[in-house]
Design goal:
Layout: H1 3-13, H2 34-47, H3 56-60, H4 66-77
C-alpha cells in the first residue's frame, strides 16, 4: 500500500499509518465522512500536486477501499504513486 496514502489517511483520522489495511472501506470501516474526504483530497494534493485539478468526484466516486483509491491515484497521476 502506498505510504503517502496511508500517511494522509492517518493524518485525517489522527491514528498511526500502520493501522490502515488496503481492504479497509473508506466510509464503513474508516468512517470517513464528506468533510474528511475533502481533507483527504487536500492532504493528497500536498504530496501529489498533479491532483490539484481533480474534483473530489474524480477521486472518490466508485471507490470504496484504500486499495481502490490507490488504483485511482495511479490513473489520475499517470504513474505509480511513490
Amino acid at each position: 500500500m502506498n505510504q503517502d496514502l496511508l500517511d494522509a489517511v492517518a493524518r485525517i483520522l489522527g491514528e498511526p499509518a500502520g493501522k490502515r489495511a488496503g481492504t479497509r472501506r473508506l466510509k464503513d470501516d474508516l468512517v470517513l465522512d464528506s468533510v474528511m474526504m475533502i481533507e483527504l483530497k487536500y492532504a493528497l494534493e500536498e504530496r501529489l500536486p498533479q491532483l490539484a485539478d481533480a474534483r473530489p468526484a474524480d477521486l472518490f466516486d466508485g471507490v470504496s477501499t484504500l486499495s481502490a483509491l490507490r488504483e485511482r491515484l495511479v490513473v489520475l497521476c499517470g504513474q505509480p504513486v511513490a
